[in-house]
Write a structure and sequence with these properties.
- By secondary structure, this protein is an all-alpha fold.
- It is built from 5 helices and no strands.
- It has one domain.
- The longest helix has about 35 residues.
Amino acid sequence: MKTIKKIFSGMLILISLFILAGCIPVEAGEEAGVIEWAEFLQAAIAFGKQVLALGGAAALVTVVINILKTLGIVKDGQSKTWSFILNAGMLAGMVVLKLFIPGLLVEVADNYLNVAAQILVSILGLVALMVPVSTKVHETIKGTAIVGKSYSLEG
């Protein structure tokens, strides 16, 4: 299974590089769609730097996997597979965005993904930790005179 994942991810990156390189404008005298290897390698290096800079995308994938674990969709031992699938989807999404919006700054898009990850972490913390804990604390201290006072019995 690991070998298949490595082959698939290598092919996905290679195909992505070819797609990205095909987006480079060609000189007027050249045939349409034909680029030189130097231009292709420059595009490949630039694309590689952009992929390595996707910290926000990685954070979002991690948070989404944790949410799916909390909901019971991702079982124990499946995180690596889900991470691979979601990261491959992020890579494919970036390639598609670069195809249709060549001037897109990947770093800016990654910052938005990072903000989305932070918001989801806050929501996950609220739902998975604070609500159940506060409910249990309320059930534990209900009816005791430890905390709070009721004014409903006073007239």
